[in-house]
## 1
Amino acid sequence: MLSFFHSTIQERKKFGKIGWNVSYDFNDSDFRISLSLISLYLNKSIETGEEELPWATLRYLIGEAMYGGRVTDDYDRRVLNTYLKEFMGDFIFDTNQKFFFSQSDFQYVIPPDEAITKELIEVEIDKIPLFTNPNVFGLHSNAEIQYFSNSVKELWTNTLMM
């Protein structure tokens, strides 16, 4: 779930001002610290025998301190916290509820629990499309137009500089 969250907020950057109002430098250290934080809370819950995980606390720490510490725009903070609410909660253990991401030609799913191996995970990762539609991120399909326009401008600028 943290990997999907990290990749989602990274991919939104390619849509420029439509993806994030301000360009943020989310990086691997945010991911690693958040991962160790989740591990710490999971281990603590197992040791104390708690039935429910402290999802609200984890969402706050990750959304406001780890990743959110970089976010300066209020609307961007709302988007970041909305993603966290969609990714983190007891519902991820519910076998009847599918993962919320979907696209017309691809269904994003969490692999089944039985016999998860490294090879199965690699096969599932290879199924994920390389190019994602802006609808996956909750953006209008026109967001892609700006991305393609900026890519072409950058290509031509670099070609002329050569």
Note: Strands lie at 102-103, 106-107.
## 2
Amino acid sequence: MESRKSIHDLVRDDLRALMANPRMSAADRQRLQQHFDSIRDMEVTMDGMGNDMVKGCAWGGVETSKLEALKTFKFTQDGMIEDIARLQMSLVALAFACNYNRTATLQWGDGTDHTIYPVPSNESLQWPFNYICHRAQSDSSTGDNPLAAQAHAEIDVVRMQTLAAGLDHFKARGLEDKSFVLWTNAIADCPSDSFRNVPNIIWGDGGGHLRQAAYVDAGNTTNSPLLNALITAAIQDTGETMENFGIGPAGQLRDVLA
């Protein structure tokens, strides 16, 4: 059976051959040795990163057959978005565990979400989510339909179950202290559509920077102090911090810091 060398092996062999060439000057040989050493240092670093997360760097737990089916699927608005969100979170967890990527953004619905959730209180209404949110059959005006309010509470439970199922993939890959996941809304609540006191759920301590298992009241402030803390958690391996992201108070929200 033929044994094939990797590109790294071939590069190393070429460097060794060059350094052994008697026509090479001492200065050139020294430069090549430095280049050789830098390649070796890079490999050691990459190996270390892989070993640090090797526990979760495997396809196990990812429903590959369902992901393959998405290539030819027909999207339906009967709550299918929940399955897609969960599958996408499983892929993000795998990418993080393998150090294939370090950031990801997943949009879950949109501003006028017309997903029809099959929750008990929506069986008679059959309203899309945005109507439920507005408590009226409208994407703009608001009402006070009590059945819609109950349906909204039931939909929140469904969506939090999806989030929990997605976070299970991160936990199974040992990412609690190596990353963080932020879940948030575009608005604070419905039907007010307020931008104050927007809820945030943070899972994972971002390498020990973020506090866990706590409810924090941010005091009706803007998002800047929280975002400063989250960005700092994400870049702390660089030795840098973020203190003035966006428009708002400078500094990090101390109540979310470990």
Note: Confidence is low (pLDDT under 50) at residues 1-7, 48-53.
## 3
Amino acid sequence: MAKGAKKLEVLVLNPIAKVGLDRLPADRYAFVKESSSPDVIMVRSADMHAMKFDANLKAVARAGAGVNNIPVQALSKLGVPVFNAPGANANAVKELVVAGLLIGARNLGPALEFVKGLDRGAKDLDKQVEGGKKAYAGIELPGHTLGVIGLGKIGSLVADAAIRLGMDVVGYDPEITVDAAWSLPSQVKKAASLEALLKASDFVTLHVPLVEKTRNLVNAKNLGVMKAGAVLLNFSREGVIEDAAVLQALAAKKLRGYVTDFPSAELIGRPGVVALPHLGASTAEAEDNCAVMVADQVREYIAHGTMENAVNFPNAQMPRESPYRLAIANANVPSMLASISQAMGGRKINIHNMLNKSKGEMAYTLVDVDSPVPDAALEGLRAIEGVLAVRYLPVE
């Protein structure tokens, strides 16, 4: 950073692990709790949908996986990437899912409530304990089938843990990536459909993002095909399971139990429901991992334009071959590269190397050039139809 230059302002909306913040050098970044024009926003769960953003904003970093609390589409229109930390909290969630399996198998929720209700002063306390425990007899996991809906990093880890516990595992994910397929244990059987998985499973766990097509993915219609006495687990997102349908299935004894990390008003205190206070990523290790991952991504993006794990833009890495670099966020439209090349050529600026990647409606272009880029050339690039943001990143 040039001597005397203003530090980049990072608006921190939630507590972010210090080990992550320390990855952003203090001589270049200043952390603030309030700002009307930050360069970067770091967030965990704070709702950003009502926030206003100005042209100074360069990046948003979510220290976690889900981005439902962030107005991604609005930020995309401004050319602002939204970084997240996929997989950084996967082990924490996996361990909680294993706990959920044991809670459901051994009736631990109602058993704990039973013990809380005992009179410590009763003379026949031992007799009450021995007599009451019969109502909470459970089952063991080996030999039972776990259905895993969503086979990304977390789903794959859950499947592996269940196999190690002696369970049979069936999986369903019509959009599984090649990398995820490679990491999936070979013992996982593929379900032909969601309904086929539900029919085959004694326990079902979901690990999918909340998008329009996954909202109420498990609902009254397909709950009906599940085995009587099955246990349903949701450590994914609130909204991927229809709460009202679950309560009906519990009341009808179709479901044995529902273990969820999302205690909605409709679920709290209902028989058969064990609701946890969104503990999935609440470990010191997961918070550190998420903070480090997004901080590293922001640092590289700010300095070199490198794009990795942005939910709204493609990954883009290009080794520097020149001290003069342009990073251009643009709509994925025809002739964009030609327009950029023409604008540079018209200013007698030679392009040394160029990378263009697209993701849906969005695209991202890195350009290394052989000479400094004047302000007039930058304004010419910004004037191109479809260009959303242009950053000039000379090596200091």
Note: The longest helix spans residues 284-304.
## 4
Amino acid sequence: MQTIIHENPSPGRNAHGQPIGGPLPDWTPRAQPPRTPMVGGRCDVVVLDPAAHTDDLWEAFQTDPSGKSWTYLFVDLPATRGALRAYLDAQAKTADPLCHTIIDRSSCRAVGIASFMRIDPNMGVIEVGNINYSERLKRTAVATEVMFLMMKRVFDELGYRRYEWKCDSLNHPSRKAAERYGFVYEGTFRQAVTYKSRNRDTAWFSMLDTEWPSLKRAYETWLDPANFDPQGAQRRSLAELIREAKR
């Protein structure tokens, strides 16, 4: 795949002397995300297929039967396998959000889900959301590779300008994850959403196409098998590599 990079244009002034955003003379609307697999070294990210994935996802989500991983999602942990199937069936019917299943290559089983959403091809903006990592996926190299594969699709394959991450402002693990993955915090939208009969102030994060080349190098270095010792412990952290790449 060819990497598509758009220079961050400098602001200018119009004929009235007013400051205006930099020109984008070559910008054209982008394509919708395709339904083809995103293939990595440790995992594949594929479009959700409830018939194929429900059983694996049910077992994966049952590794935390408390349901706390669902607290900040728009639904709670389904109580039965049938209820999960109904939820996944509904998710699979939409093109936006476009829900994907994460397949761990070591087990060939589904271990979580994540979606492209709020897809705006005209503006070149897309969001990653509805992320639900099971305990089998959390705190693993696979979890990071998922995000890397989705970023590569957004920037390298489709040429979008902006990639967004949004979460409940009280969801501190999600905020921490966004920062670790290289997203930049932009602010909090107060009383932006209601869900589960409660308020949500939404924290916004973003990543730009101009930032992607250095972030991509950091991810590639972190995901390299040489960055892990024989016990699987990382030698250098992703946060450290991202800081170096941004210098």
Note: The mean pLDDT is 94.
